[in-house]
Design goal:
The complex is a heterodimer of chains A (660) and B (390).
Chain A: H1 3-23, E1 30-36, H2 39-45, H3 52-65, E2 70-74, E3 83-87, H4 94-102, H5 114-117, E4 151-157, E5 163-171, H6 176-181, E6 190-201, E7 209-214, H7 219-225, H8 228-235, E8 257-258, E9 266-268, H9 280-297, H10 304-307, H11 310-321, E10 341-344, E11 354-356, H12 364-368, E12 382-385, E13 388-389, E14 410-416, H13 425-428, E15 433-440, E16 451-456, H14 476-479, E17 482-490, H15 508-563, E18 573-576, H16 579-586, E19 590-593, H17 594-597, H18 609-631, H19 640-654
Parallel strand pairs in A: 2-12, 10-14, 16-17, 18-19
Antiparallel strand pairs in A: 1-6, 2-3, 3-7, 4-5, 4-7, 5-6, 8-9, 10-11, 12-13, 14-15, 15-17
Chain B: H1 8-14, H2 37-58, E1 65-70, H3 77-89, E2 92-98, H4 105-115, E3 125-127, H5 140-148, E4 153-157, H6 172-187, E5 192-199, H7 207-223, H8 225-235, H9 239-248, H10 254-274, E6 279-290, E7 299-310, H11 332-344, E8 347-348, H12 349-355, H13 357-373, H14 378-385
Parallel strand pairs in B: 1-2, 1-4, 2-3, 4-5, 6-8
Antiparallel strand pairs in B: 5-7, 6-7
């Protein structure tokens, strides 16, 4: 912004403040023009977001930054004509609202002047007045509503004020043509809409908060929220030979469908996973459980894409994006149980992660002093959408089991605060610190919970990245079994793109996190391999021990049958080589050359423990054959060499296909 | 470049259409009948007083929630006054409102003013539907009703008549009331209140509907001599007069017709509630009549208390505890006689205020103060209430 423009903007802002103040008594409307400093920001107010959820996510973030305790969103589903977002945050006074209007993209948040406007903490501009780490920084969040409508109202009040402000905003659709035609000098502000503001008297001095009312939603936004395309396709009967329709099924849970062209009549009643009597805080848990249950009723790997309609998926997306609590405990507050094993990552070292032993009421937070989520001392943040309280839909216990080697989930935790002091100021991009968890589970349900999600200030717009920041190693199965979240405590902010839905992957902070994650994944893979190997060996040993017992029982039975006596004992046959062979024979024991008998077996230079165990069992089986043959007297008249030949032939037969 | 064919429907799906600003800064002078002091009397002395008593009877404590269904209009006047009652009683107010008027800055501001108060439950909501939508089960309005029901207080504050009809024999508001009653019968084990404000204009009412309503009176008269006697003693109404009215549609004096209309509505409600396995006693509370246009009374503000009277519904599985319902002897005819008695004591509010200048000024002052806080021009309001020719 050039100094002259700054002056001009300041003058406009001061003029608006004066106008609203002057009109307080008469109740007259003050009118201002929404302006941005350049075309890029004009483009932003026109909507840069992809989904309706993005707009609501930004408004929730604004409420969080304003120290709200509760956000109530009413969507008027399944009609979606008007959406109201209400918060009990600090609200805006005349100056803060004027500032917002005249500085789109120039938020006072995270600046020293933020304290003056009530948007930042006096001591630390990166925090909210109440001490939360601020999510917003640029000042475009409010204009994300352009995704949904170009007509909205703001009703706001600050504590201690004897007035409320009502602002009505009408956004203008951005057009390059008009800007190009406008006879304005280069650098002049671009008009993006109009605002009409009225200040009205308020008796409730202590009240505070902001309502954003999105009026008369855009047709395409409504259609998206109503899952119109899906319902229309479900209603179409494919004609013969028409293979243009994708395989679609009615979502298991949905908000229902209006009759075509009607705003009042319901054609398909809603199907929701909760009952009317369920409390708002229970409903999200029930939604999550319903998705888990899809596994036993609908598909092996439940997906939100097919289980939920757009509206319920929006709720899910918002719950992941918002700085709200988990449906159960935060991963760093989960108590030890038989169902979850904890590991500590140390990506600087090779090999597996270290087992973290938590006892009693120990948690990762207590034992390792983890900090995330850092929300200051403000009370918990609640978001209610149509009477459903959003909860982060990830659980760390009671997860689905499979028949895999490791049956119970593993929770890996790690953190990093790299010393970037050696890097020059120009290149460093500030300091970086983060904490992370990787939940490995035999199966991740729903599928969309698989991947890496990076949170800054405990919020995220990126959802789960199932490439784990483009991890190139072929660990497909293991990667599909991981849900991971990074809680950034310092830095990375600058790498977040303006829509907060993607990262500038070349930023050094992102690069560091990506590499750290990749190393963590290798360490997790090593741990899993080690665990699988131990589990595999233990299982084989258990099986062998049980096979040995069974073999002894069979031999005893068969020998008894051969001798027609229940107390007949199997003969003591041994396979030996060298002097001990002769020694054993001298003692009257039936000793045969192991080399000769087992000659058909492949001899690998290096054998695993499991392979050795298998061969051991095989030898015992051949010994059992010899004992049974001997019990029937079939070896009796044969020379040692002939006995060895018979057994060698048997070994040769049974060695086929066993890998022995 | 021209487009081949007509593709306006594509544009309709994309463009939001013209958006005009609605925010106005002028002082409001659009006074309506419901801004008059007498309506404020109803709010305070009927709605608030009875609600206060119900909160006490139900023993709603500090953690309690008063569930309210209303038709709040853009200023949310009913909710504003009940908010005061709930604040004093330290119970939360959870409201569900239907208001078909287009959303305006006025209603948005009003909602902010109301909802900023901690006493308001977060699930409170207003939907842009008309009351008649509640009578149809396949509507968004009904779905939302079902989500919020049951209610402690139901307030159907109509501008028109409960039995108004655009189609012969079809009474949408009465259908809506029936739907609400069905949900209450199904879900509400404690007493509840129903306020009903309705126009009472003989000519406006549908003849077929009136015939059926008055038919209930005749049935009662024929079945119970004591009811006939009470009707005659208290309201001066005879079987013959009712019959004559049904035939000619103009036999009763206007004030008698208003009484008969009020009685027939109350009787309909009682008969509906008495004809379920789960009986509900209907009691008419202190009610009022007044005139919208300075003529004969043509508006009724009725207040009912509906109390489940058993038998207590059983849970056939025995899994849940038996519900406690006050088992009272239930007699529809006795209740009907009590209603007749209450109809006789319906007060003419216009006369009451005219006869008590102090009360009238008190109501004017209170109403004026409330409207001033809602940005109304109080000087114009005084002219509206007391025109110079008076």
């Amino acid at each position: 912004m050039t100094p002259s423009l700054a002056t001009s903007s300041k003058t406009d802002e001061a003029r608006l403040v004066q106008s609203i103040t002057n009109n307080q008594k008469s109740g007259k409307v003050s009118v201002a023009t929404l302006q941005t400093d350049d075309r890029v920001l004009a483009r932003i107010t026109d909507g840069i977001y992809r989904q309706p959820a993005s707009a609501l996510r930004e408004l929730i973030s604004n409420a969080y930054d304003a120290d709200a305790m509760t956000v109530v969103i009413q969507t008027d589903a399944p009609r979606f004509d008007q959406i109201t977002v209400r918060d009990d945050g600090v609200g805006m006074d005349i100056r803060a609202l004027s500032r917002l209007i005249h500085h789109i993209g120039g938020s006072s948040k995270r600046r020293n002047e933020g304290a003056e406007f009530g948007t930042s903490n006096k001591k630390d501009p990166s925090r909210s007045p109440g001490g939360r780490r601020l999510i917003g920084k640029i000042g475009i969040g409010l204009f994300s509503v352009a995704q949904l409508t170009r007509h909205f109202q703001i009703v706001t009040k600050v504590k201690g004020a004897n007035y409320r402000l009502v602002a009505e905003v009408i956004l203008k659709t951005y057009t390059e043509e008009e800007i190009a035609k406008a006879p304005k000098p280069r650098g002049e502000k671009v008009e993006t809409g109009t605002v009409r503001i009225v200040s009205v008297h308020a008796d409730d001095i202590a009240s505070h908060g902001t309502d954003i009312i999105l009026m008369n939603l855009r047709p395409q936004a409504k259609e998206l929220l109503q899952s119109k395309v899906l319902w229309e396709q479900l209603g179409r009967t494919p004609e013969a030979g028409d293979d243009s329709l994708p395989m679609l099924r009615r979502p298991s849970y949905h908000i229902g469908r209006l009759a075509s062209g009607s705003k009042t009549t319901v054609l398909v009643p809603p199907r929701l996973p909760w009952k009317k009597s369920d409390a708002p805080e229970e409903r999200f848990r029930l939604l999550y459980q319903a998705i888990l249950d899809e596994q036993s009723t609908v598909e092996r790997n439940p997906r939100l894409e097919t289980s939920l309609d757009n509206y319920l998926r929006m709720l899910w997306t918002l719950s992941l994006a918002s700085p709200v609590d988990y449906i159960e405990d935060h991963p760093f507050d989960v108590m030890p149980s038989d169902e979850l094993t904890f590991y500590q990552l140390s990506v600087g070292t090779a090999g597996p992660a270290t087992r973290l032993k938590l006892a009693g009421k120990d948690t990762v937070r207590k034992k390792l002093e983890y900090k995330a989520p850092e929300r200051g001392s403000t009370p918990p943040f609640r978001v209610l959408v149509d009477d459903v309280e959003l909860r982060r839909p990830i659980r760390f216990d009671d997860l689905p089991e499979t028949a895999q080697a490791i049956k119970t989930p593993l929770l890996f935790v790690g953190r990093a605060e790299p010393d970037l002091s050696k890097v020059s100021d120009e290149e460093r991009g500030g300091s970086l610190a983060f904490e992370a968890y990787f939940l490995w589970a035999p199966k991740i349900v729903p599928k969309e919970n698989n991947g890496l999600l990076i949170r800054i200030s405990d919020a995220s717009g990126t959802l789960f990245d199932d490439t784990f920041a483009k991890y190139q190693v072929s660990e497909l199965t293991r990667l599909k079994q991981i849900t991971a979240e990074i809680f950034v405590l310092h830095g990375l902010d600058a790498a977040l793109n303006i829509d907060r839905e993607s990262f500038n992957t070349s930023h050094p902070h992102f690069q560091y996190i990506a590499r750290w994650v990749h190393r963590a994944l290798r360490q997790i893979a090593n741990t899993l391999k080690q665990l699988a190997s131990v589990e595999h060996e233990e299982r084989a040993a258990r099986q062998r021990s049980s096979a040995n017992a069974e073999l002894s029982r069979v031999v005893r039975t068969e020998v008894a049958r051969a001798g027609n006596r229940s107390d007949s004992e199997p003969s003591d046959i041994d396979f030996q080589d060298g002097p001990s062979l002769t020694e054993k024979r001298k003692q009257g024991q039936l000793a045969l050359s192991a080399q000769r008998v087992f000659a058909p077996l492949n001899r690998k230079s290096k054998q695993g423990k499991n392979q050795r165990g298998k061969q051991d069992l095989f030898r015992k089986q051949i010994r059992a054959v010899a004992q049974v043959l001997d019990a029937y007297g079939l070896l009796e008249d044969l020379t040692y060499e002939e006995q060895e030949e018979v057994l060698r032939a048997i070994v040769a037969i049974f060695a086929v296909g066993t890998g022995a | 470049m021209a487009t081949d064919g007509h593709e306006d429907d594509i544009l309709d799906d994309i463009y939001q259409g013209e958006v005009n600003p609605v925010l106005e800064g002028k002082k409001r002078r659009d006074f309506q009948a419901w801004h008059r002091p007498r309506k404020h009397f109803i709010r305070i002395h009927q709605w608030c007083a009875e609600t206060r008593r119900l909160i006490k009877d139900l023993k709603l404590n500090e953690k309690g929630v008063l569930s309210y269904l209303g038709l709040p209009g853009e200023d949310l006047l009913d909710i504003r006054v009940l908010k005061g009652v709930c604040t004093k009683a330290k119970v939360a107010l959870r409201y569900l409102g239907y208001d078909r008027s287009l959303r305006s800055p006025v209603v948005n501001l009003a909602r902010h003013e109301i909802n900023s108060d901690q006493v308001i439950h977060a699930a409170s909501c207003i939907y842009p539907d008309d009351l008649d939508q509640l009578g149809k089960r396949d509507t968004v309005a009904f779905q939302n009703l079902e989500r919020h029901a049951p209610f402690d207080v139901i307030n159907l504050d109509l501008c028109g008549g409960l039995t108004d009809s655009d189609e012969p024999g079809v009474v949408p508001y009465l259908e809506a009331l029936r739907t609400i009653c069905d949900l209450q019968i199904e879900r509400r084990p404690q007493p509840w209140l129903c306020f009903l404000t309705t126009r009472a204009i003989r000519k406006a009412a549908d003849t077929e509907v009136l015939q059926k309503l008055f038919e209930r009176l005749l049935v009662n008269i024929q079945a119970h001599a004591s009811f006939a006697q009470r009707l005659s003693d208290s309201l001066g109404l005879s079987e013959q007069q009712v019959r004559q009215e049904m035939t000619t549609g103009r036999d009763l004096e206007l004030s008698q017709w208003v009484d008969a209309y009020a009685l027939s509505i109350a009787k309909w409600l009682l008969h509906y509630m008495a004809n379920h396995d789960y009986k509900i006693a209907v009691k008419l509370l202190k009610s009022y009549r007044y005139s919208v246009h300075n003529g004969a009374p043509d508006m009724l503000s009725l207040a009912f208390e509906l109390a489940p009277a058993g038998p207590a519904r059983e849970d056939p599985s025995g899994l849940t505890q038996p519900r406690k319902v006050a088992e009272v002897s239930y007699s529809e005819s006795d209740l009907a006689e009590q209603i007749v008695q209450e109809i006789a004591s319906i007060e003419d509010l216009d006369s009451k205020l005219k006869g008590d200048r102090e009360l009238e000024l008190k109501m004017f002052t209170k109403s004026s103060k409330l409207l001033e806080s809602l940005r109304y021009d109080v000087v114009a309001y005084e002219r509206f209430c007391f025109p110079p020719e008076r």
